[in-house]
């Protein structure tokens, strides 16, 4: 077992709904040659050069191991789950109790080994292009009417463009979509992404 990082201990020592499960997952993960760090508020496991491989994460209904390049893994048992329909790379193994973790220990280890091999090989997930994302009609109209916004949007990085397109398209009502677009125009004009 590799050395644990004391800066991450508070997550495993804090009494939470998933404390037992977190510790069981940590024990399995640390059988591999990882550097344990705290990233995005969660225990993250990376190679010494910084290549993130897995992350332990807790949710209301389950806890999970998240594989950063999970879509590259062979999932013969069909256990990996995309966190949302728009997640292209990440996949999760989800658990609701420690018995599930103990029962699937061999499977968890085989998935971690695959993830390590993918990282070592430098494999990349082929991401959708911005053009493959749906652009809602309300935003198309704004871009047609306002050349300044159109040029600013086109100058954004593909990731920032996708962030806006996804955010706009998630609203069910036209009025909400229009309000979101209007609110975001100043950031688009300033070359900023949705969360900048």
Question: What can you see in these coordinates?
Answer:
With 196 residues, the chain is α+β, with helices and mostly antiparallel strands. 43% of the residues lie in helices and 14% in strands. The chain contains 8 helices and 5 strands. It has helices at 9-13, 19-29, 98-103, 105-120, 137-145, 147-155, 158-170, 174-189, and strands spanning 35-39, 42-46, 52-58, 63-67, 91-95. It has a 5-stranded antiparallel beta sheet. Strand 1 and strand 2 (42-46) form a beta hairpin. The longest helix has 16 residues, at 105-120. The protein is elongated, with a radius of gyration of 20 Å.
Task: Please supply descriptive tags for the structure shown above.
196 residues; alpha+beta; elongated
Q: Summed up, what is this model?
A:
This protein has 196 residues and is α+β, with helices and mostly antiparallel strands. It has eight helices and five strands, in the order ααβββββαααααα.
Uncertain runs = none
Global morphology:
elongated
Order of helices and strands: HHEEEEEHHHHHH
Derived from helix and strand composition plus strand pairing, the structural class reads alpha+beta
**How would you write the strand order of the largest sheet?**
1-2-3-4-5
Question: How does the SSE layout of this entry go?
Answer:
Elements: H1 9-13, H2 19-29, E1 35-39, E2 42-46, E3 52-58, E4 63-67, E5 91-95, H3 98-103, H4 105-120, H5 137-145, H6 147-155, H7 158-170, H8 174-189
Antiparallel strand pairs: 1-2, 2-3, 3-4, 4-5
Helix pairs in contact: 5-6, 7-8
């Amino acid at each position: 077992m590799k050395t644990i990082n004391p800066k991450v201990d508070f997550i495993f020592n804090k009494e939470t709904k998933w404390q037992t499960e977190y510790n069981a997952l940590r024990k399995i993960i640390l059988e591999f040659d990882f550097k344990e760090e705290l990233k995005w508020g969660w225990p993250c496991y990376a190679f010494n050069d910084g290549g993130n491989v897995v992350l332990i994460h807790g949710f209301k209904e389950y806890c999970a191991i998240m594989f950063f390049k999970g879509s590259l893994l062979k999932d013969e048992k069909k256990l990996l789950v995309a966190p949302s329909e728009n997640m292209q790379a990440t996949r999760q193994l989800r658990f609701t109790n420690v018995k599930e973790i103990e029962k699937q220990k061999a499977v968890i280890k085989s998935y971690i080994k695959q993830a390590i091999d993918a990282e070592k090989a430098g494999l990349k997930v082929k991401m959708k292009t911005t053009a493959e994302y749906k652009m809602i009609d309300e935003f198309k109209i704004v871009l047609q009417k306002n050349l300044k916004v159109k040029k600013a949007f086109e100058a954004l990085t593909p990731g920032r463009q996708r962030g806006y397109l996804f955010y706009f398209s998630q609203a069910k009502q036209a009025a909400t979509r229009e309000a979101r677009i209007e609110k975001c125009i100043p950031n688009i004009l300033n070359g900023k992404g949705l969360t900048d």
